[in-house]
C-alpha cells in the first residue's frame, strides 16, 4: 500500500525520457518529496522494447529514492494495453509496477484532507501521423459514459489532475482549432464547473502557464496550472507541499488572489 505523501513533485509530459526521469527522482529526493504525480504521456508502451525498458527501470529508481509514482494516462500511451490489463487494485489506484500506480479516469482519493479526482486522456493533435491500434487509440478521449460517471459523483473536489486542459483556458498553439480536441476540453470544463475544483493541474500542451478562471454567475474559481514537456526541463516540474496547497485552495475559494 503506497504511503500518503506530504510533499509532491508534479511533472508534465515525459515521453519515456529515462535520463530526465532520473533528474526528476534526484530533485524530488532533494526537495523531500514522497511521491511524483505525473500528468500524462508518461511513456506507457509495454509492447515496444525501448519504452518497455523505460517502464522496467522505474521501480529501481523509485525504490532507491523511497518515492512512489502516480500517473494519469495521456493520449500518447498504449491505451489498449493499459486499459485491458488486469492490474492489481490498490483502491483507488492500479498498481502497474512496484511503486508505480495508474490513476484511472474518475478516481477519487484524499491526501492530507485534500480531495483529488483524476481525468486522463486527450486528443492527439498529431493523429494523422499515427497508426490506429499501434501508436494511436480511439480511447484517447473521455467517453460519454466516463464523463457522466464523473459528473454524477457528489461533492466538490479540491484538485483536478488531468492530462488535457479545460476549454476556457486560451493558449495560442499556432494551429487552427480542431473540433474533437475542443470537445474533449469542453468536457473537462464541464467537470470543473460541476465538481468545482479550486486547482487543476495538466500537461498535454507542452506549455507552462498559470491561469485563474472565474465564473461570476456560479462563483466557481479555479487556478489552472499547465506544465511543459520534458524538453523544457524547469518548466516541466513543480513541487507542492500539501499543507501549503490546502491553504492555497482555501484562499482561492475565499476570493483572494492565489
Identify the overall geometry.
globular
pLDDT below 50 for ≥5 consecutive residues: which ranges? none
Question: How much strand content do the residues show?
Answer: 15-25%
Largest sheet: 7 strands, mixed
Rg: 17 Å
Order of helices and strands: EHEHEHEEEEEHEHEEEEH
Sheet with most strands: strand arrangement: 4-5-6-3-2-1-13
Write down how many β-strands occur, each being a DSSP E stretch of 2 or more residues: 13
What average pLDDT do the residues reach?
Answer: 93
Which class of secondary structure composition applies to the elements?
alpha/beta
Task: Write down the domain tally.
Answer: 1
Corresponding CATH architecture: 4-Layer Sandwich
What is the CATH third-level topology name? Purple Acid Phosphatase, chain A, domain 2
- Please, how many helices? 6
N-to-C span: 34 Å
Structure description:
With 258 residues, the chain is of the alpha/beta class. The protein has one domain: Purple Acid Phosphatase, chain A, domain 2 (4-Layer Sandwich), CATH 3.60.21.10. The chain has 6 helices and 13 strands. The strands form 2 sheets. Strands 4-5-6-3-2-1-13 form a 7-stranded mixed β-sheet. It has a 6-stranded mixed β-sheet with strand order 7-8-9-10-12-11. Strand 11 and strand 12 form a beta hairpin. Helix 1 packs parallel to helix 2. It is globular. The relative contact order is 0.17. The model has no long low-confidence stretch (mean pLDDT 93).
